[in-house]
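Reference record
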Amino acid sequence: MVKDVGTKNMLLRLDPEMAERLQTVAEVEGRSVSDVAREAIAALVEQRRSDAQFSRLLEENLARHERSLRRLREDS
């Protein structure tokens, strides 16, 4: 079996109703479910890049992780 280069397999759990909707979109558009899901995920990620609230959360998380790293270094 040849693995896809540059891709990562992920498990996505959906409730049955959402899975059926996703399957319907894929069938209507003549695409795979994976392709439709990738497109939706890419759109969400792009949307978050320009979302001010997400940017604030990202900055808060970065600051928290920086503090944790400093504490770990100090303990060494």
